[in-house]
Amino acid sequence: MSVTPVEGLETAQDSLAGFTVGVTATRRREEFCALLERRGARVVSAPAIRLVPLEEDTDLLAATRDALAGPIDDVVITTGVGFRGWMAAAEGWGLSADLADHLAKSRLLTRGPKARGAVRAAGLNDHWTPATESCQEVKQYLLAQKLSGRRIAVQLHGEPLTDFVADLRHAGAEVIEIPVYRWLPYRDPSLLRRLVTQTITGAVDAVAFTSAPAVHAMLRSARADGLEESLLAAFSGGVVAACVGPVTAEPLTSRGVHTLQPERARLGALARALARHLPEYGVTRIVAGGHHLEIRGHAVVVDGELKPLPPAPMAVLKRLADKPGHVVPRADLRMVLPGGPTRDSAEHAVEMAVTRLRRALGPTGIVETVVKRGYRLACQRPLP
Prior knowledge:
Blueprint: E1 20-23, H1 29-38, E2 42-45, E3 49-51, H2 58-67, E4 74-77, H3 80-92, H4 96-104, E5 107-110, H5 113-121, H6 135-143, E6 151-155, H7 162-170, E7 174-178, E8 183-185, H8 190-201, E9 206-209, H9 212-224, H10 228-236, E10 240-243, H11 246-253, H12 267-281, E11 284-288, E12 291-295, E13 299-302, E14 305-308, H13 311-322, E15 328-329, H14 330-336, H15 343-361, E16 367-370, E17 374-377
Parallel strand pairs: 1-2, 1-9, 4-5, 4-6, 6-7, 9-10
Antiparallel strand pairs: 3-8, 11-12, 12-13, 13-14, 15-17, 16-17
């Protein structure tokens, strides 16, 4: 069925108007939320983690001193922000000159253009960058060479690179892990717990992750409340798990969850991927009462006009849209109402939800009452 273009939206395929996206990011959170809101999304911000200040990180200081104890043959630099932080922390400890001297004599393998740019900004020369911007390709590059006796420093990016480091050590290399930034749980855990509940109940259409530690933090939060399996089921059902790249996605993909990933691991690319995916797969399009309807996450587009809906009317509309033109009994509608009304109030709650739905839709004739049976969308003919 054809649908009238949505007024005020970029295009039907490039707008998040009517959708709710949970954001777990801490670093660059405001920037990412703005990218989504600019496309019309309603954003639920629930920071999952926080960074340990580098100047207070005794593990980083110990690893840096270990690296400086002898010549370094190769340095794997995984992130630009991590490399800059490492150099800044070394300056605070009075080790910057020694570290820069060691790095200048090493082969610097940068995982992507941001890491490469940080190296060059520090006045150092990068040796090689993989086309795929992946740690896996960096590892294969190193393993193709003789590693026995080589000292290799690997800058971590928030999570241990367990397999990466193990494979290099198995090949004979001495590997120094540089934990340039570590993550701790966010100070206010209630925000993430609320997002877990919203994900399970379908109150959000997608959750965006920009780091693997944030994924682990959300899974831990759900596990603490006995909700981990419910959370994974939600991600395997109607809620999109959007991850900035394969490293971020791994904690979910290893559990069998399909994730949405952009072609490039960038915040802008992740926002664009969501803007393409949700309107294509998260929209129900029907014609009822002669009007074109686009049912989105928390809104409906009626003849091109976006109309946000409260939870109860939206739940009723989505249930009616499951079988357009068919009568849906009041008892079925009662089951989908949020909050679970009591038996005595159920009939009234359904009537109120339908009344509010009709008022929000505006044009008459979209929702029909079938006396003593229930309600239906006024489609020209029932769809199978």
